[in-house]
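Q: What would this chain look like folded?
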Amino acid sequence: MASDPFRLFDEWYADAQASEPNDPGAMALATADADGRPSVRIVLLKAHGPDGFVFYTNERSRKGDELAQNPRAALLLHWKSLRRQVRIEGPVSRVSSEQSDAYFATRSRDSQLGAWASDQSSPLPSRDEFENRYQKMQAKFDGVDVPRPPHWGGFSIDPETIEFWIDKPHRLHERRLFTRLADGSWTEGLLYP
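A: My prediction, written as structure tokens:
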């Protein structure tokens, strides 16, 4: 196996893209508010590499608010078909406006309009209200490209640790932990299952 955690992740992610029936980039994102109250949800991995693991969201959502209060997070990608998972932990920063604009432009028009219509994570009095807001956005942007909302963008988790877990019989799993050192290099070790 590779001793570079990013190369190993690339190999595992390629395997997942070939074997997972739905969303190989689906990952659990754990955040916590300023008081340490945790929350977790699924987001989609949109870019990855030595510069970080990137996802996009409404920055006014619960996760966006928690990341503003406490800019650290953990990710978990679980590929059941491969019996593997990867855990990633580290500080979080916003990606550039240019990177957010570029990704937003690749989204379907319906998803773009939904980003404008939704006050993500806020209470919704009725489904009709959301659908009416969506229709207003359709009318507002009729015939023109939909720009990225100013409150919508990307976040990048800069990994301090990356753990690769392989399911083994009788719960005798294999766990490899990569830890980034202050100079940016990585050390590797094993964990008890």
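The mean pLDDT is 95.
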